[in-house]
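Example complex used in Figure S2.
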Amino acid sequence: MPSLDITNFLNVALDVQATPFVGVHVADGVAAATDGVMLVAKKYNDPVYLRGRGSLSPKAAKVLAALAEATWIGSIEVNGNRVTVTAQSTWYDEKVGTEVAGGYCEVKLPEFYCPRVPIARMLAVLTDESQGWQQIVENPNLKALKEMSVRGYVALVDDPRDGGELFRPKADGDECWYSVAQLRRGLRLFGKNARLSVRQNRDGWLAFNDQWGHTFAVTPFVKRN
Amino acid sequence: MVDSMLAQFLNVALDIQQTPAYAGIRVTGGTLAASDGVILVAFKLNSEYIRGEGMIPPATARALAALANEVYLDYIEVDGTAVNLVTREQYADRSERLAVTFPPFACRTVRIETFLPRCLPPHAELVCEAPSLKLVKAARSNDFVELVDKPVRGSELFQLKLPDAKVWYSVRQLREGLRLFRARDSVSVYKNDQGWLSFRDDWGRLFAVTPFVKRD
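Predicted assembly (441 residues):
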């Protein structure tokens, strides 16, 4: 059985990460990637599943994504730039005519250099009360985002309601707004059945969380006088 | 130095081997081969570089393609469906060998190599060296093409299928397999008595496609 959750996270993370924050960074059971404007993260509550501290270079992340797409990953251990995973083997039972799960095997990936990033500090900003984070809406409708041009910009609707539309096209007088392209790239993190919770801080940063520990945060475009 | 040719082959092979009965990439005698039952791609490498015999399951092939694109591989060893490879980790002051072991994954053995002799002399005849394949690029993917009467080096190999054609080929299938070769690669084209068309380059890569045949 493939670990599609990891594959999806890594693919989105690989798309988002960029210089100078290149790579997927792991600390305290959280994997995260950022380009300085957007941030995607996934928190694993199982302390055994994702352990250690360090950075997966994009090369290692690509190999891991490929492996996770094909088999169940039992655990991921990160130590600096060294990544070791346990992957479940499978074999084909000719008598039964089906694929059968086997034992876990350790796969040690080559060590690729990737600079460390203070990802824990970045994530802390998303929960820092002094930043004025406020819950905006639960389970919003994002239909407008899907229908708009990828080059478009959106702003939050005036009074978003649970289950209602969250965005509207940007208007001239808006103080802060968001890029449709950036929102779309980050929101690929969430599955169809994800129950999203949306928060905003006083600087206009928008954070989306779901019930499975995924987080996507994006910074706004702001009107300067 | 990374092995981008191997990575490219694996990516094309992965696209082709998606029929469940032909899943995986066959390894034997230093040759990698993949098929979907209609088209076939193969890559003959040094048997010291690709060692052992077995199948590379799609899972491992994906990871291997990602690795081959990024690091220098000393060799790849296949044992059944388990794959071991040795790579070099580069540090500023030294390089270290690292063995990477991929676990065995379910993959049935398909002896694709048995098709290979039928694609090459003496079972197949040389049709043309270094032909132009512009029509394959220009045609629509749902078009069909046939060989021109007497193809010559540098001129077009195909023409659009005529109503009375006896043997013809799918543009989509040709495009899928010809991705194996780079723009400046010079390929030799062979055809056997069953109409199988094979393209081979000097690097040991081969793409073969079976034709559509008019039945009376």
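The first strand of chain B starts at residue 25 and ends at 28. The interface with chain A takes residues 57-60, 62-63, 65-67, 70-71, 81, 87, 89, 98, 100-108 of chain B (CB under 8 Å).
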